[in-house]
Design a protein that fits this description.
Order of helices and strands: HHHHHHHHHHHHHH
Oligomer: single chain
Shape: flat
Structural class: mainly alpha
CATH architecture of the largest domain: Orthogonal Bundle
CATH class of the largest domain: Mainly Alpha
Number of domains: 2
CATH superfamily of the largest domain: MetI-like
Radius of gyration: 24 Å
Distance between the termini: 40 Å
């Protein structure tokens, strides 16, 4: 079947729109990556936007001069711990909401998700100050749970609701307990949703800045806070800042690309019940 001029025109318009969207979306990332291989002089020179001599000194400075290894480990500790605890607490909560129709609790969790995280910052700071926890991993992990826990509950609940009750009832007839059926039936069948929620919770913790700014200490500084090392009273090391930004966003971008199909399927499949 031959394409008509109208179809060809629509196809051209479609690809032009796609190209514009990709340009707007990817240009900042490409600019950040290319700038991380430039000297500051080249970075400030518009003529060197595309053609320049790449260097690795910025990345060497990130891990030597600015000591990024410690913030990377701190971010891993906080993100993994917050995500793990959120899963341990959130999965049973999501199961209870789904199976026992706890709609009021679901609305409360939704309200917590909607409220900006910064709203909880001052109360958290005052509480942790009284308890002597400011500047500790405990403070950061508990603060991150405010977002990670409702996120996991809200994403996983539709998965538990979509699983037929007959599967559990059959297990109960065979002598299984509620806990055993939850572990052996509900959790495996809700794997995509749990996987998606855990990834999103980890990414949130990895990128969080506002909680680290107020609650972290000298020994618990995370990657977003380490960015301040590139800013001084007299200058801003833009090239080093770009390299640091690549180090921070690189793992998140790679995880998102590698697990994109799982995240998309996890977010969409849980929206269908029955």
């Amino acid at each position: 079947m031959k394409s008509t001029p109208k179809k060809i025109g629509l196809r051209i318009i479609y690809w032009i729109v796609v190209a514009v969207i990709l340009l707007v979306t990817l240009f900042p990332i490409l600019y950040m990556v290319t700038s991380s291989f430039k000297k500051i002089v080249d970075l400030m020179n518009p003529d060197k936007l595309l053609f320049f001599t790449p260097i690795l000194q910025n990345y060497i400075d990130v891990f030597t001069k600015y000591s990024f290894i410690k913030p990377i480990m701190n971010s891993l500790i906080v993100a993994v711990a917050a995500t793990g605890i959120a899963c341990l607490m959130g999965l049973p909560a999501a199961y209870a909401i789904a199976r026992y129709k706890m709609n009021k609790m679901s609305l409360i969790i939704l309200a917590v998700r909607i409220i900006p995280a910064i709203t909880f910052l001052i109360p958290w700071y005052m509480i942790f100050s009284k308890l002597g926890l400011n500047g500790t991993f405990t403070a950061l992990i508990l603060a991150h749970l405010l977002i990670s826990l409702p996120l996991i509950i809200w994403i996983v609940t539709p998965y538990f609701e979509s699983i037929p009750k007959e599967l559990e009832e059959a297990a109960f007839i065979d002598g299984s307990s509620v806990f055993r059926s939850f572990i052996q039936i509900m959790v495996p069948l809700s794997g995509p949703g749990i996987f998606t929620a855990a990834i999103l919770a980890f990414i949130y913790s990895w990128n969080n800045f506002i909680f680290a700014l107020v609650l972290s200490g000298k020994n618990t500084k995370t990657l977003p806070m380490a960015i301040f090392n590139f800013i001084s009273y007299t200058e801003v090391n833009w090239s080093g800042l770009m390299a640091a930004a690549v180090v921070i966003t690189g793992p998140v971008i790679l995880i998102s690309i590698a697990l994109q199909k799982y995240v998309v399927s996890g977010l969409t499949a849980g929206a269908v019940k029955g």
